[in-house]
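Final report, results section. Input specification for complex C-07:
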Amino acid sequence: MNKPLEAGKLAAHETAAKQWQREFAAGAVSDQTLRNRSGVEVKPLYTPQDWRGDYDAALGYPGQPPYTRGIYASMHRGRTWSQRQLIGLGTPADYNARLLEMIAQGTTAVSLIPCNSVFRGYDMDEVHAELLGTCGVVANTAQHIDRSLEGVDLARTSCAMNDPSPFTLLAFMLAAAKKRGVDWRSISGTSNQSDYLSHYVANHMFFRIALPGARRILTDHIEFCNRHVPRWNPMSVVGQHMQQAGATPAEAMAFTLCSAVQYAEDCRARGMQPDEFLPRFTFFFDISVSLFEEVAKFRAGRRIWARIARERLGARDARAWRFKFHGQTSGVDLTRQQPLNNISRVTVQAIAGILGGLQSLHTDAYDEALSCPTEFGARIAVNTQNILREEARLTDVIDPLGGSYYIESLTDAMERKILAVMAEVDAAGGMYAAVEQGLPQKKIGASARAFQEKVESGEQTVVGVNAYQVEEGSGEREALPVPDPAKMQAHLAAFAAYKQARSQAAVQRALDGLAAAASDPKQNVFAHVVEAAEAGCTHGEICATLRRELGFGQPLVVV
Amino acid sequence: MRMNAESCSGAVAAILAGERRALARAMSAVENETAAGKALLHALQPHLGRARVLGVTGPPGAGKSTLVNALIGAWLARGASVGVVAVDPSSPFSGGAILGDRVRMGEHQAHERVFIRSLASRGHGGGLSRTAARVVDLLDAAGYERIIVETVGAGQSEVEVAEVADTRVVVCPPGLGDEVQALKAGILEIADILVVNKADLPQAERTERELLAMLSLHHYADWTPQVLRTVATSGAGVAELADVIERHAAACADQRRAHGGRVRRLIAASAADWAKRRIEDLASAEFDRLCAQVRSGELDYASADRRALELALRSENET
Amino acid sequence: MSAQAPKVLVTKIGLDGHDRGSRVVASYLRDAGMEVVYTPPWQDIPAVVKLAMEEDVDVIGVSSLATDHLIVPKLMRALADAGMHDVAVIVGGIVPDADEATLLEAGVAKVFHPGSALENIAVEIRRLTQQRRALNA
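Structure output:
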């Protein structure tokens, strides 16, 4: 690629290029400039002229700086990506049954998603009963988590708890582990979506505590886990929410990296060392159907993060430079119309993530756009991964798109876009300040609007929605699977009985200790959350205590 | 809302009784400047003057809404009823608006002793809307003891709140630096109370000192502006703020005089607004001649504007 | 009678927090000249009724993902109890057909499914506003 061409060859090359240009112009449908979702121009053809970078400086070998081609030397050849399917529904017993099934089908890691009521910080008896358990498991105590993970060897299985501040689900899991005699030091997994800024900005899903309080608790959480649960990743920096909310892929990556910098700086201010905490930072991204753009996004992200970790954050250990990430296929690309088409979409998204070098993958079920997925849909989603790995053999070659003139040019272009957005955030004073001012929210809203307008005008095709539509009878749209009301009533009754039977004194002591810790900056709030979990406190009680002490803020409305 | 004498008195009675729906619909009529709305306001005039009006302004990022939320809580705890008027900017292009301010008072918006109304600025500069003062009057008539007017949040140009409010609070974020200078233009000069919010941040103390230093340059007669520190998210300093607001109320003599002052200021503002619109719309040869005289230097502006007022009044009486 | 633009509430009740759709709709309506009271997710029903009353809104737009639409009938009853029969409610989001029928029976004026054109939502809001204004004149 870098060899200079001799004069004669050069002339021949020029002639060929001109011929192509002529023929292309004659045959092309329009001369309109095409751009990808991030706004990068996409040309019809890429040649050596489009990328004359230096292999060693810009790409390198996998497992070495600049990490463009992958964070590990062997990547998926050595250890395939984790098939980490998000599951959540109904009661702990329901969840456990589905989990064991999925493990039998090839899921290698656990990801538990709780009911929306849990995300809001409430116990099951504090919300409208008909909304319980429709999209996540109703788990409010250590017992519930224990039951949900029955039959799972906590010392050997990586468990991701989707549980932002104050991380009660992990606390419940630690309590359950202690009861089972499992050493906390053998527990691995992630506090998935612990990134409070992304929740605040992009989907308000898990917003419970005012920003300053959330900031404090996260830093406490990282500190506690680094010390007591060393194989746990307490920091999951999320780009998925923002991309789902409408951020372009470049914007999502930029804001995520800025958030990571913010969290790292908060840890450093606390006295923690980058070499200690950065290896336990993981990332979580959305993967859209824009296949090449996503691959380039991830490659650029790896490269930028390695540089930031080393140069800006001062990490010296190579493990701190590695951009570990989980990818989830994008739900907003899926349609309600002709839902089986979503299988094709998810396949393309999964390919993008795999070729982009992710470490773990969740594939959506085709019926995700209708409701929470059925078993049937979930099985296809897992098999999609199995097919890509074992039939299409996508794991045979590391970074197979590397070296493509297009991909290398696009990776550079995406890097430039990402850095430009990061500069804006830095100018605003960092991600926390930018979020307080509404900067990311404004950009994301504008991108969401712009995309909607492209769909409405037809510029962006969405099969089944603005093109290739068919009349669909009501039979084709299934009803929502809702949890068995009788089971949920039983669950509620058992919960009430549980609260009666436990030691009220122990519960009160633990909650008082938690409240005191919240107003004392020298104490670790998460340590007290764990104590409260062990003392039998419920999720709602823990959240209410913290909300009282730290404030229940309202998100900034930026439309 | 078509209004005859009977339905007007019915609406008046409902509002005086604090009936929520009637109050809300009256506000719409007032906002839209309908004849019915004007008649209602006129009928309510003798019933005004009981409420204490607090104006809250400050730059974005200061945490105004969070502070207002906390203050509402403090007042509710003291048994007061609270009305809030939150003004958001209208789009200069479409005329539409996103009214998103009220939810930042989320905790209290459902309380039965709280009434919150969002207003779009509808092209009005100065931080409020043209009818905001009238909407405040409706809340006053309905018996809300404390009324908060929260402005658009642009910062410098919000002197208008000074006319509507009895007590003016300016909320500052810590670490203002250059922004302190920018704020000086107008806002700080009208503040009765300056609040440094997010006072748990390191720069808060310095900001407080900078503000105190700036205040010391001025001379004050009845009331020296107070500088307070709060952490709105935790409620720290909010009780003190409520106390200082009460002290300011006492310092400004009795209620009637305060209301009189406000009425005076509002009449002046309303007259100025009328005069401006009327004069700009003048389409007479006389006015054209007047303008020519100013352009040539024959008349100075001071004489011209008196003359223009006469012309405006005359044209008003002729229509 | 002034030809004042519609005043619309765009809100989310229930437990879900995904508000991309409601934000896009709110911004579109604002650009169409309407005054939009916009709330973040998780508003509870009594708060929504009180808000709609105090703001004197013409139409309430409820955005729903997953199963939150299941409690919209509760909202309809609360509005009726508060004497607010004139305020129309529209629902946007993922609503299975069987549930759509239930919502319409409960008094919801219209359900907009994913992929609905924004202009259609605006047109419906204008129509419902006109209806309300005529009723209250």
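The interface with chain A takes residues 14-20, 23-24, 26-28, 30, 36, 38-42, 66-68, 70-71, 74, 94, 96-99, 113-115, 117-119 of chain C (CB under 8 Å). The longest helix of chain C spans residues 118-136. This concludes the modelling results for the funded period.
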